[in-house]
Amino acid sequence: MWSKYAHIHQTIDSALQAYNTAFKLLPSLSWLGHTIASRHNALIHANFLACDGAAAAISMGDSEQALEWLEQGRSVVWGQFLQLRSPVDKLREVDIDHAESLSNIGLALEQGSHTENPMTNESDSKISSEHAIQKHRQLADKWDSIVKCVQKIPGFERFMLPKQFHELQQAASQCPVVVLNISKYRCVALIVKSTSDPPCQIHLDNLTYDTAKTLQMAFQKILSDQGIRNRRVDRHGELEFGTDSNANDAFRHILAELWKSVVEPVLTQLNPESDRFRICWCPTGPLMFLPIHAAGIYNADGSASVSLADIAISSYTPSLSALLNRHKWEDQTSTFKFLAVIQPNTPGATPLRGTIAELTYLQKHVPVSSLHVLKGEDATTAEVLTGMEKYSWVHLACHGVQDQSDPMQSSLLLHDGRLSLSRIIQKRIPHADFAFLSACQTATGDERRPEEAIHLAAGMLVAGYKGVTGTMWPIQDNDAPFVADQVYSRLLQNGRPSGVHPAAALHEAIHELRRRGGSDFTSWVPFIYMGV
């Protein structure tokens, strides 16, 4: 309310003071002593805090403050997970007791945060359950207390505090990162070009929050009307998409608006010199649900007059922090082991005939010595979780479901039930490199909490994977095997990682899909890459 009235009366100094106060209070709103579900529910009240605060900072010309606030106020729960898993090696050198305590408490807090993994068994009494809740809160208090003690040690004054811009800009070590701040006060692209240059800001003059929201709603209507949002099959069990020409026209309109209002101004500033130029998008608000990577001016037959997909290799990230402290792709060859999860006939779900073809292609590219297959009845939740801990690459060819009522229960459908996002993020996978989620709705997100990026692809990043290929909506059965074959033919050479970046491999695979007749937007647009 303070910031709102400060904006109304155009007292920007007061607005900045309001936002500064709010960001200090945010950790209390999303306290580690609460469950993940409770934190996500509490953060609904702070949905617009980060973007509006950043807009206020931008109005004062402080892009660095804007990026710091965006990082503090978005993907908050994911950020807490990354914080709990932060290495304490430097602290261990000066205070081994506090370092060990934080490591142990961090693990206990993770385990106690999940509603699916309570700190008591189902048979325990209500008293025991209350005791577990109390114990979890005591651990959170102890964590806070130790962190404050560590911050008094010389050299550790900013220990576990929000990252400053000079730390965040390391996210641009491999390619420029474009943060799209969508606020009712102003819409701006903040470009982190490199690890040394100051951020560049571009005012998106042709975009407002309302127009972005209108585009999002129009996009959702297309998916719903065409039976794409929820997987619809014909009498032969094949995935059935509508072919209404009006929907194609609407699709072209949305992609054209994204091009003119968002992408073209950014490209003008970046001035890419080659068609293999890489760019990472970090959208906010309504843009989180729109396919920025496919923006362009398209003809009625689906061909492009100009499009981002023909100019640059796009990827996404839920935050700048998600790109930090990740080894480069060139460093992962020695750890290469491959897990393939194939579910052609999941109990209670429609058949996925294309998964058999996917396995055939995987076997063509991955040597037997490096490949472990969990197929059909063998693909249980326990076996898949165990396999993810052992194998650095994972390909999941199965059904995926975005749970609208509880996004943390968004799941991969396996033989014995659901492998939920909540269970996946409990894993700490030290050798995780790449995950290919050849499943539906793995990067859809929750409309009530747009800034939290609660979906399976983001969860795989939290679990430790460097990069994830996912989908924004259900994909056609005959497209998935083709894309998988094209991606792995580039990522692997002689059965080992080739050094080609996954974003580039997916980019080229989608070009091949379009060339072979997959110019229909519903066919190629859903595939995205997320991560470093």
TrEMBL record:
Origin superkingdom: Eukaryota
InterPro entries hit by this protein: CHAT_dom (IPR024983)
UniProt-recorded name of the protein: CHAT domain-containing protein
One Pfam family per UniProt: CHAT
Domain CHAT span(s) in chain numbering: 254-531
